[in-house]
Amino acid sequence: MRLFIDTGSVAEVEEIARWGVLAGATTNPSLLAKESGDPGDIVRRICELVRGPVSAEVVSSDAGGMVAEGRALRALHEHVVVKVPFSAAGLEATRALAGDGIPVNMTLVFSPTQAILAAEAGATYISCFMGRLDDVSIDSAEVLAGIVGCLRPTGVTAQVLAASIRHPEHVVTAAKLGCEVATVPGKVLRQMLDHPLTTAGIERFSADWASRPEFGEWLRGLVASGSVPASH
Ligand code: G3P
């Protein structure tokens, strides 16, 4: 499963892109509304940082408006994927944009039936919001399993994207269910780093090494000698 970052913050993408784990990013109007600066500049910068698909969302509610906005968003950068909210108009716009060769991320999909329609309209990604399903006491894992189970046997190429990820276990569930992508907020990506045994293990290695000061001297000498290639 590939990891996208779900954010409108360039600073957050700059921080986490350095880990080398991001394959793309997703934004939405709510995330961009929290940021200052030109939204187009933000989307372009995120595209440069992740060097992969970056979803930017249309806001019109009619198909013609969605298509016009989608084409304009796509013109921002070659990595832009046009995010279209699920509706009859959204399906129509998805078909038109896909026909132009523009990749679409159909968002706000909450059921297998909606996912089947999104796939048939030509969406490249189908975003199912886990957290928002759980918020209304609908088991997000069950819905996601239903979506994956409906799409896989039909051989459609649409990728299932787990979104509205609220905690690390959502990421694990999405991976186990075979989702192609999970888009994860920076906060949850940072939570995924943590394990008390990792922290304790690093502290113990460090203390044991420090108990032999001559070893520290030796390593500093090795680094200074330049005998280790800087990169390969
Ligand atoms: O990926 C969609 C996401 O941004 C929505 O998350 O937490 O507002 O449901 P949330």
Q: Could you characterize what this model shows?
A:
- With 232 residues, the chain is α/β, with parallel strands linked by helices.
- The protein has helices spanning 10-17, 29-33, 39-50, 63-74, 88-99, 112-121, 130-135, 140-151, 168-176, 186-193, 196-210, 213-225, and strands spanning 2-6, 22-26, 54-57, 80-85, 104-109, 125-129, 159-163, 181-184.
- Strands 1-2-3-4-5-6-7-8 form an 8-stranded parallel β-barrel, surrounded by 8 helices.
- SN-glycerol-3-phosphate binds at residues 6, 26, 28, 31, 129, 131-132, 163-164, 166, 183.
- Residues 6, 26, 28, 31, 129, 131-132, 163-164, 166, 183 line the site of SN-glycerol-3-phosphate.
Low-confidence blocks of residues:
none
What is the β-strand count? Answer: 8
Shape: elongated
Number of helices: 12
Helicity level, as a percent range?
40-55%
CA-atom Rg in angstroms: 21 Å
Task: Give structural attributes.
binds SN-glycerol-3-phosphate; 232 residues; 53% helix; elongated; alpha/beta
Quick synopsis:
Helix content is 53%, strand content 17%.
